[in-house]
Design goal:
Oligomer: single chain
Largest sheet: 2 strands, antiparallel
Helix content: over 70%
Order of helices and strands: EEHHHHHHHHHH
Structural class: mainly alpha
Number of helices: 10
Number of domains: 1
Strand order of the largest sheet: 1-2
Distance between the termini: 29 Å
Strand content: under 5%
Amino acid sequence: MNTTKGSPHGTNKSITGIDPKVKLSLRKIAVITGVIFIIATGALFPAAALTPGLTGTDYLTQFSAHPNQVAAGAFAYLVAALASAGIAIAMYPVMKGSNAGLALGSVVFRALEAVFYMVEVVILLSLPTLGQQFTTTGAADRTLLQAIGNSLVSVREHAALVAVFAFCLGAFMYYYLFFQSRLIPRWLSGFGIVAIILMMVACVLALFSGNLITSYIALAFPIFLQEMVLAVWLIVKGFNPSAVASLPAKTATNELLSAA
């Protein structure tokens, strides 16, 4: 049975009303986005494992003793930062058809997230040099170098907190668009909205308590779980074609074809 029919422009459309080229582009975007989600989250594990602890009084000595390990950890953080921005950028052609302003906002905030994560990377790469000076200098100068190190660590912690705030805002925008457009099942996008709100609560608690954002694992875990489920869903199932067909036709078609 023939499931396609000719369009006025000479192209075929499936029974979902989507040009096959658009459908293929949609599938590619979904897979790429899912892979980037996994990279962005997965890179954080080796980054955290490779980076020496920043607590106690001897962390400068530890950084001085393991410069290559620190560099590897910083590289993993850099990969995670770039992938974080890449998520919203990859989805932009699809999300723009639903709401261009929110789609662009998600790109902006996730790019800001990446910028502040890069601030963390720069600080991490600076600590081995500071640590070498700390271990070779006299006792009189160690107090000053320790104070400089503590200040850098504090800046890193605050940069991380701002990065997570930016992540929450950017992610909330595209989860709202997901929920509104039904590009993914509403149980999945709704889970994302709830998880992001919990993550935002963790950020506020960290801001006013002075604790690290990592102190609130229970509030952060839901968004980790949701993003991994979303990544698998996008790779295996992709976006809902009928939801794309309901977007403004010219916008959706042009954006997706240009992304192909």
